[in-house]
Amino acid sequence: MNNQPLAYRMRPKKIEDVVGQQQLIGKGKIIWRMVQAHRLSSMILYGAPGTGKTSIASAIAGSTDLSFRILNAATDGKKELQEVAEEGKMSGSVVLLLDEIHRLDKAKQDFLLPHLESGRIILIGATTENPYLSVTPAIRSRTQIFQVELLSEQDIKTAIDRALTDKENGLGNYNIKLDQDAQTHLAIATNGDLRSSLNGLELAVLSTKASGKKQQIHITLPIVEETIQRKSMSGDKNGDAHYDVISAFQKSIRGSDADAGIYYLGRILEAGDLAIAARRLLVIAYEDVGLANPNAAAHAVQAVTAALQLGLPEARIPLANAVIELALSPKSNSAYMAINNVMTDIEKGGTGDVPIQLKNTRNWGKTKNQQIDYLYPHDFPNDWVAQAYLPNKIKDKRYFQAKGNSKYEQLLFETYNKLKENQQKGLKD
């Protein structure tokens, strides 16, 4: 058998074979249109590991019959970049997937820039870091930036089914029975990382002996749990328990039951889902506790940071601190509801234009018969002056409605109401 990992062998050769990321490569979407028009431009793909950055690059190259090379910005040097540039010079263009592009140093960057300008190298940078913060402006200005999303459970199941039936690159030459709950665990326990799911599947197959008259390799849930070193939250067939436990975790803390919150945290961590526990705690801190206890939200951020640095099993300790504090804190979803109401109004449209005095100064004076003087609050007593900030169509909207479950939030709401009243009075005068 080919010694290359299953995930590598199953890498798509054309854009239609990419699993997930339909917002980028689906029919009619931006990367699909680039390929169809044979008008490729350099780009940066950023997102979590195993979500398809390399697959998209490989599929782009395969769909256009261009040469495809992979380098790492941290470990490969100028010599390797020169070899790619020479290949691009000979063939016209070459697609270069440059992994960890955020670690590209100045010497390599200076070498690459003219080749990006000429089109000899079509760069596809891959990174798990936010390129707006980690990639140099010179590279960003010459690339399109696309965010790659976590793959869904169904996306990963689709890829698993392909791998099980593909006789050329997959496991189709084996007689495999994969139990439904085992497949579901492969799809959800790897947190959207298709590479981990496929390589876990391959290890399970290669380490399990065929048995029975049909010499069948039977992959059960316990085998998958051992292979990927993550326990299932439950032995249910459809994987609903995974989402049920996460839901119960948030609802218990929202309901101020510290014991239940700690219990469901333990269930999640026992399944090895540290990332899910951390992400959910941050959501709870700002959605459910919010302005009623901002200190608890800040403490949750600190706890999550510590947990991710420590890793399991020690990560359980700071997370347990956060769960108890969040569960026993006063609750308010006022900020959550405020931004939801704003987004609803924006989606409906018709909220109006930015007031002229708030616009960039380059636009001042373009509209006749309008007051365009921006009043600088720091020039006035108490650093405040009555001035219109919302668009005229929604000038009387009040998005913030406090619950008043803590003195801190009540104080904010009193200040909010006082400023609104003074603003309305000042604008009428």
UniProtKB/TrEMBL annotation:
GO molecular function: ATP binding; ATP hydrolysis activity; DNA binding; enzyme activator activity; single-stranded DNA helicase activity
One Pfam family hit: AAA_assoc_2
UniProt cross-references to CDD domains, sorted A to Z: AAA, HLD_clamp_RarA
Keyword Nucleotide-binding: yes
Keyword Nucleotide-binding: yes
A biological process from GO: DNA-templated DNA replication
Residues annotated as domain AAA+ ATPase: 39-151
Domain of life assignment: Bacteria
Keyword annotations: ATP-binding, Nucleotide-binding
SUPFAM superfamilies named in the record: P-loop containing nucleoside triphosphate hydrolases (SSF52540), post-AAA+ oligomerization domain-like (SSF48019)
Name by which UniProt lists this protein: Replication-associated recombination protein A
Organism encoding this protein: Oenococcus sicerae
